Amino acid sequence: MKTVLDLLKSWDGVAMQIRKRGRATIFLDFDGTLVDIAPRPEMVRLKREAREVLRRLAKHPLAALVVVSGRRRAELLKHIGVPGIHYFGLYGWERDDKSTLPADAQEALNEARKKIEPLLKRYPNLWIENKKSSLSVHMLHVAKARHAALREELIAVLRQFQKKLRAVGNIRDVEILPRSIPGKGIAVKAFLRDNAERAGLAFYFGDDYSDESGFVAVGRGPSVHVGKARPTKARYRLKAPVETAKALERIEGVLNEIEKGGLGGGGKSKAMRATA
Q1: Is a pLDDT exceeding 70 seen at residue 267?
Q2: pLDDT computed for residue 263 by the predictor
Q3: Count of beta carbons in the 10 Å neighbourhood of residue 261
Q4: Residue 104 vs residues 38, 70, 91, 197, 230: alpha-carbon distances, Å
């Protein structure tokens, strides 16, 4: 396993990068990154400290915030609800309320769910979350000793749908997505490309396997794995969401220094302002 540096302990070097670029674009996963993992998705709670630093950064003229999650965009708006953040649901594919799947992809998802349902009888505590545009097969409460066998069975069931659907293996679930939903890394690259003039130093914070493409997408920018140590392409690590909030506060502090010193790149362009 390669050495992954503790972000907070390596802060001086990161702060220097922010000062050099003059502004920051911050990509954030949600579950396990901004909030602790809960027994059920609807039970998560964003802590006050995290919400307040998100509010301040969302208004900061030298920052852009993008939440990129496997959740639906409407859920992100409900659980975070901070104006000025770009909310990208379904791994970055759902960027507004107008995102709709082709009929054949929706049909494939419906058929796949029917084929997967018999697994619920063989694996106690397994459950399927129907996100309408994707399916999440949640394994959090399934005995870890059975995860490998379960994943193999899922792959076997989904093989007949491989032309229209793909599976993303995460730590606590397997996400079944239409192939038209490409993943977080593509969304990150597109946002940076479309806002290249004012993107600044790009950060990516994430905890799951689906965040690995996001780590790569920020290039030389700080990529940060949140959670228990595991093999990752991220350059830095944090132990838990509470440390994510601390890191965001440190980013804010450096940006405030730049703003006071008149070293930043000015206010946000129209494209960089988000709408909830």
Answers
A1: no
A2: 59
A3: 9
A4: 33, 21, 20, 38, 37
Q: Which residues contact 165 (CB under 8 A, 6 or more apart)?
A: 105, 108, 109, 112, 158, 176, 177, 178, 179
Residue 63 pLDDT > 50, yes or no? yes
What the block records as the tokens of 231 is 């093999």
Among 125, 95, 88, residue whose Cα is nearest residue 206:
88
**Can you state the percent helix, strand and coil of the chain, rounding each to 5?**
40, 20, 40
- Determine the 3-state secondary structure of 174 from DSSP: strand
pLDDT digits (tens, 9 = 90+) for 158-195: 999 999 999 988 899 999 999 988 899 999 999 999 98
pLDDT, the chain, mean: 91
- 3-state helix/strand/coil string of 90-145: CCCCECCCCCCCCHHHHHHHHHHHHHHCCHHHHCCCCEEEECCCCEEEECCCCCHH
Q: Strand 5-6 and strand 236-238: pairing?
A: parallel
Q: Quick one: how far is CA 183 from the chain centroid?
A: 10
Q: What DSSP character marks residue 83?
A: T
Task: Round to whole Å and give the CA distance between 116 and 166.
Answer: 14
Distance CA(60)–CA(146), nearest Å, equals: 47
207 by DSSP, 3-state: which?
A: coil
| Distance separating the N- and C-terminal Cα atoms of the chain | 39
Counting other chains too, the contacts that 58-61 makes at CB distance below 8 Å and 24 or more residues apart are 58/82, 58/83, 58/84, 58/85, 58/274, 59/84, 60/252, 60/255, 60/259, 61/259, 61/264, 61/266, 61/267, 61/268
Q: Enter the pTM of the model.
A: 0.88
The widest CA-to-CA distance across the chain, in whole angstroms, is 63
